[in-house]
UniProtKB/TrEMBL annotation:
This is T-complex protein 1 subunit beta. The lineage of its organism: Eukaryota, Viridiplantae, Streptophyta, Embryophyta, Tracheophyta. One of its GO terms (molecular function) is ATP binding. Belongs to the TCP-1 chaperonin family. Keywords: ATP-binding, Chaperone, Cytoplasm, Nucleotide-binding. It is found in: Cytoplasm. Its main location: cytoplasm. The keyword Ribonucleoprotein does not apply. InterPro entries: Chap_CCT_beta, Chaperone_TCP-1, Chaperonin_TCP-1_CS, Cpn60/GroEL/TCP-1, GroEL-like_apical_dom_sf, GROEL-like_equatorial_sf, TCP-1-like_intermed_sf, TCP-1_chaperonin. PROSITE patterns: TCP1_1, TCP1_2, TCP1_3. It comes from the Eukaryota. Molecular chaperone; assists the folding of proteins upon ATP hydrolysis. Known to play a role, in vitro, in the folding of actin and tubulin.
Amino acid sequence: MAIDKLFKDEATEEKGERARMASFIGAMAIADLVKTTLGPKGMDKILQSTGRGHSVTVTNDGATILKSLHIDNPAAKVLVDISKVQDDEVGDGTTSVVVLAGELLREAEKLVNAKIHPMTIIAGFRMASECARNVLEQKVVDNKQDAEKFRSDLMNIARTTLSSKILSQDKEHFAKLAVDAVMRLKGSTNLEAIQIIKKPGGSLKDSFLDEGFILDKKIGVGQPKRIENAKILVANTAMDTDKVKIYGARVRVDSMAKVADLEAAEKEKMREKVQKIISHGINCFVNRQLIYNFPEELFADAGILAIEHADFDGIERLGLVTGGEIASTFDNPESVKLGHCKLIEEIMIGEDKMIHFSGVAMGQACTIVLRGASPHVLDEAERSLHDALCVLSQTVNDSRVLLGGGWPEMVMAKAVDELAKKTPGKRSHAIEAFTRALLAIPTTIADNAGLDSAELIAQLRAEHHKDESNAGIDVISGSVGDMSELGISESFKVKQAVLLSATEATEMILRVDEIITCAPRRREGM
């Protein structure tokens, strides 16, 4: 009896089998949830929030789906987290990592039921993942030296990444956009310099890449519409103090004339501030806050283009690409770094006017303008493009490339299977299980396309027993195809991240033998 009262009321604990059961089931449920989004024929999910406005998201990006779920099961949370990390780290493979981890757990469950100790399973999985990674490293292709080939590798990777997304219809077009944008970065993985603007209207084919920077603002009245060799001051300062605000100020005066004097004094202060700003020798002033009519008029007289309310994101990025710093005091002009660009002009996109900065100091910068039928399509297009950009920018740094379409999994499975035959003891069961889990990815790709997966995987295995086979699943024709001819490639970095994250997550969940849920804290006075 005494032991039962170890925990406070309402705290629960689950031990041994039950705890392991709960973690396995939760993790497998999550894996099955995103399984159908894998591969070129994967389906999308609609996520509807129950909050205000019932916003709807249509997506097949694993990380986005899992981020939006509120999950109670602790093991399922681990899978959600590895998917998030995969998204932050390499951008793509968010679904694969969850599916692989889920399959590893499914295999582990069978082994645990067969009375094999979790630590033995973990040791086997460790050996298997090491072996799988090594065999991938031997099979990579690296075309960094040959610019032409490397570019075609990048195009293939972009096409492969986009083929499982909404952009698959126009993947040629978008792969080219993504590769051009990433090539401009010249090896930096800072995606801040690539700005994505979404404008409803038109079709996805109308999207384009623009070198330079586009600010989603209109040019004010009576100001120059076009400026060459612009010197830009980016600022975050209040330009609305030239009027006494009726609601905000309490002024004690003995006559109305004094109020007029106050107003005049405020106006003078404003005029001085504008003079200080003009003395920087600029011809474009971008401010994050309001600019009232009076200072705007002064700027227009001086022939300076004044842009107000540039949102924070816009300002930060504008400072970054033009090489200027965000200033908030203007007393010593020489210490402020101005931004430079060759030309500022107004352009029309759809119905909206925007301000286009071209020839910016940071040559890497560019803007991708996405057009599409509805906000949902645009959001999903942006997510897909972001995935492609992440993968490409990682690949530019680590230029090792693999074939796709289930080929890497088959290669790894073959190597791991051979390792299992050589390994004595119970660990070999775990290593064999790892092989089966790896095969789950090509199986799922085939299942999602409505193909006979058992038949295809058997054919693939037979193909891979010949040396140096390039066989993978060709979803379009529904048969086994040559991946290098079809140009289906993936980045080595993505595959490696999938393999290692999934194995580590599985290991973590396998180690669990007790789940303790603590009691909710009571409010005082209940």
